[in-house]
Every structure is written in structure tokens, then in C-alpha cells.
């Protein structure tokens, strides 16, 4: 399975990872090799097989709708790169 | 003291021969003096350790001690520790000090154990050699005297090296595709990957959520059982955790193995395994026969598909889990972002290492529009086929035995330029994670002076039986007591 330069660039945007031009060739090779490895799956007959999400087929539990956690905004924001007035700061989005 | 097991240290403390403060200080002094050779720790939390030791001595004086009270150990740097930096081996979390404890961390605290610090690991647990850590590679204590620097395995390589080098008697690990068992094997220690859902994943930084499982790494099966007594249990904070009674894992260690039915999966004794490794593993299995076990060949016909399924499922789940590292709420943020997109893309390009980015990109590709069914859904179907093989095998036998890794510890730099060759390192361990069953690595011999691990695989929730089988083996062999040469 080959993966093209265009595929790498598209996936990098989706993954929000900046990929420099000089890295693309190495990624084409590495990702191509990984996808070759993965292509063995095609040989398996899985027509009547249910996909497995949890080894014990457990399903999501529901909990009672009651307050269990208290607000710890200050503790959580103390480790943020940039905050102001209890808000997280990011570069301007709207001009 | 540094050669003693957790069980022995616990008895020393109980007898009053040593206080936890004295013991902790001895271990800290040794750790600081010796770890330059191994780089097995990312953070040593001396101040907090001594505070925990003082509290442990007070608990003991008040008659409230458990088996763990005052005993030193370490956490893999993937478990969040309130107030102590938790990096997950990544630059992304270089300055991350969690405001909360993982459930596993909290459990050890409640038992009165003394955490000396956080052990090195492959970045975000992605690797089989510990060379992908932002904090430098870990060196295996074995083989050092010959002048070669060998890998300790990964991703829990720091924990394995630290236990093997007698820096700590025990350490936590996590295992997504072999990350407890393979480093345990390569460093000659005992490790257990529990059943998926047996140990809470809350506060354990996520790599592949449907595969990740925390577990014990120690020198003896008895110590691993003592760790399981603390680690296992239901946790409402982990929605995939299983609500099921936790046995006392030490209670059944001494049960005889007479009549134990052992299956040898023929696919795991293939030409991928070096003849010298195979000889050691077969010798170990003969010890089990002497203990009264019977052996038969079994087949896991879909095991050959495990690596392929894993390298869809694990990267796909990783790409989703690691999307949280966006430079907004915690962790690394790039300098002078010019807009929001620039901030995201440069933060992630600069904060993640090569292997992590590679897996995020593979996972993103596998989950992207038009590919989901062909990759992720297909892999999940193959996963069920692999699980069914194990279910069928356990209708015939009690446990399966196999090698853990195809070769002993390899040299640093030998495999880290080719991702696929590194992935094949986990060929005997990965199917177990896909099935969600428990498995152990037990020291079972030496090849060229390097440790060989025996893998013991069990049915769901059979941890007590695996620990019993490992403990009985350790009563008649001394591989687990060998010190690195």
C-alpha cells in the first residue's frame, strides 16, 4: 500500500501536526511500511464477525445524576499555559 | 536492604528492625548514586518520599500498618501523582504537575507505600526499547559489564531497569501491547498484565484505551501478588473497569501445580524465535512438568494477524486520545503562535516525538473518511477472531506458555531506525492485549548472559492462578534472584 505526499499532507492537517516538507518523504516511507503490515488484515475472513470494542463486551454504565465533584477551576487553571479572569487564553480567533 | 523483596522489607518494618524513614533514605541514597548508569528515573521525589515515610512510621506506631506501609517503590511516569511532575516520557508534559492522583496512585498512598519517584518510559508508552523517551534512553543493567549498552525493553523500561538494578523492590507498569511483559523479560524480572478492566485506568495517561492496563513489576511473583492486592479493584471513575470481587492474590501462591494443564501455542514456537531462546523456554516448561503439570500443543490460528490488527487499533485510539494535547489547558505550548491553527500544529509538532507523531498520523489516516470500515472496523473484527482462539484454547488447557520476546535485550540503536522491525518485537505479547486476557513474564533462563522471559497466559480474571504458577516455579528455580552481570 502506498501513501502519497498529498495523503500525508491531508492527514497532517486533520491531526493538527505541522509537517515540514523535508519530513514528508520519510513519513511516506514509514507510513507506507506500516500500512503494508496492516494490509495482512485483508486476508482474514470476517464476513459474519461482530467487531469487538470491549474484551468483556461491557457497556457504558450510567450513574445517578447527582453532584459528585466540586469546582476546582483555580487548581486546574494554575497549570495552563495562559489564563485571564478564569478563562483560557488562545490566539485571537475573531477579528 | 536493597536486595530484599517487598515481602521481606515489609517484615523488617514490622519487626521494628528498621524504620520507613531509614529505609527510604537508604533507597534514595542508592538511587541517586547509581541511576546515572541506567537513567531509569525521570523524577526523584525525595521530599515527598520522606514525608510519606514519616507518615508510614506514624501509622505503624498507631497499629494501622498494612503489608505496604513504609515500603519504597516507584511509579511509571504515566500514573498521575498529585503535586509530582508526570511527563509520560514526553516534552509535551515536561512541566505538567497533575492536580490529582490516579486511582492506582491513590491506592498505594492509602496502603502507606512510599513512592520514590517516577520511572522513565517510551514517550506516551509507544515503543519497545525505551529509546523514544524525551528524557533519554534507559540502559539495561544486564550486559553492561561487556561494554554494550542494551535496551531494557519498553515501554515500561525504566520500571524494569530500576527493579533489576535493585534501585527499588517494585514498580508499577502499563501494558498496551507488551509494555510490562517485554521489559520484564529483557531485564530478568517478574511482570503481570492483568485482565482488561481489572485495574483502574483513571489518571493513567491514555494511549489506546481499549488495550491499556496497569500492572505490577517486581522481582518475585509474591511481590507482584502484593502489588495486585493494592492495584486491582473496581473504580467508578473508569467506565471500562469491571465490578468484580478482588481475591487476596497472596492466598493461593502455595497451591500445588499437580494436574495443571499447560498448552503450548504452536504459532509461538515459530522460526521467529531464536533456537537458544526456545531451548530456555522449553527447559522452563520441563520444570513445570516436574511439578506435576501436563503439556500439550494448541493452536491460535489467527495469532499471526495480531500485529496487523494492533497497528490499526492502537494508533487509531492514540490519535483520538492525544488530540487533548492542544496547548490550551495544560502542557507545552509553542512560542509566539500567529493564530489558533498555528498554535495547534506547532505545539503538537514540537511537543511530540517522532514515533508518537507517526502513530497519530497512521491512526488519523485509519479513522479518516472512507477508510474507517477498511481499517478500524476490520481490525476490531479480527480482534474477535483472535479472542475466540484463546477462548477455544482455554476449553482444553488451564494456561498457555510461550516466550515473551523473540530475542534477548538488543543493543541501543539497533532497531530504532525501522519502526516495523521494532513492532515485531511484540509478536508474542500483542494478541493477549487484543483479547484482554492476563499474562505474566517470569525469569526463565539466560542466553549469552542476558535474561529470557517465560510468558504464562491465562483466561479472564485468572491472575491468582498465574501468580501461583509463577511462584511455584520460583520455589524451584533461581532465575528471578540472579543479579545483572
UniProtKB/TrEMBL annotation, chain A:
Catalytic activity: L-glutamyl-tRNA(Gln) + L-glutamine + ATP + H2O = L-glutaminyl-tRNA(Gln) + L-glutamate + ADP + phosphate + H(+); L-aspartyl-tRNA(Asn) + L-glutamine + ATP + H2O = L-asparaginyl-tRNA(Asn) + L-glutamate + ADP + phosphate + 2 H(+)
Spans traversing the lipid bilayer: none
GO molecular function, one term: glutaminyl-tRNA synthase (glutamine-hydrolyzing) activity
Enzyme class: ligase
Swiss-Prot/TrEMBL keywords: ATP-binding, Ligase, Nucleotide-binding, Protein biosynthesis, Transferase
Statement: the UniProt record of this protein carries the keyword ATP-binding: yes
Domain of life: Bacteria
EC number: 6.3.5.-
Keyword Secreted: no
Any single GO BP term: glutaminyl-tRNAGln biosynthesis via transamidation
Complexes and interactors: Heterotrimer of A, B and C subunits.
NCBIfam families named in the record: gatC
Record family assignment: Belongs to the GatC family.
Known role: Allows the formation of correctly charged Asn-tRNA(Asn) or Gln-tRNA(Gln) through the transamidation of misacylated Asp-tRNA(Asn) or Glu-tRNA(Gln) in organisms which lack either or both of asparaginyl-tRNA or glutaminyl-tRNA synthetases. The reaction takes place in the presence of glutamine and ATP through an activated phospho-Asp-tRNA(Asn) or phospho-Glu-tRNA(Gln).
Protein name: Aspartyl/glutamyl-tRNA(Asn/Gln) amidotransferase subunit C
Originating species: Marinobacter profundi
Designated gene of the protein: gatC
TrEMBL record, chain B:
Residue ranges of every copy of the Amidase domain listed in the record: 22-467
GO cellular component, one term: glutamyl-tRNA(Gln) amidotransferase complex
Documented EC number(s): 6.3.5.7
Keyword Ligase: yes
Name this protein carries in UniProt: Glutamyl-tRNA(Gln) amidotransferase subunit A
Enzyme class: ligase
The keyword Aminoacyl-tRNA synthetase belongs to this UniProt entry's keyword annotation: no
Annotated Pfam families: Amidase (PF01425)
Gene expressing this chain: gatA
A Gene Ontology BP annotation from the UniProt entry: translation
Any GO MF annotation of the entry: transferase activity
Subunit structure: Heterotrimer of A, B and C subunits.
Protein role: Allows the formation of correctly charged Gln-tRNA(Gln) through the transamidation of misacylated Glu-tRNA(Gln) in organisms which lack glutaminyl-tRNA synthetase. The reaction takes place in the presence of glutamine and ATP through an activated gamma-phospho-Glu-tRNA(Gln).
Reactions that this protein is recorded to catalyse: L-glutamyl-tRNA(Gln) + L-glutamine + ATP + H2O = L-glutaminyl-tRNA(Gln) + L-glutamate + ADP + phosphate + H(+)
Catalytic center residues: 76 (charge relay system), 155 (charge relay system), 179 (acyl-ester intermediate)
Keywords in alphabetical order: ATP-binding, Ligase, Nucleotide-binding, Protein biosynthesis, Transferase
InterPro entries, A to Z: Amidase (IPR000120), Amidase_CS (IPR020556), Amidase_dom (IPR023631), AS_sf (IPR036928), GatA (IPR004412)
Family membership: Belongs to the amidase family. GatA subfamily.
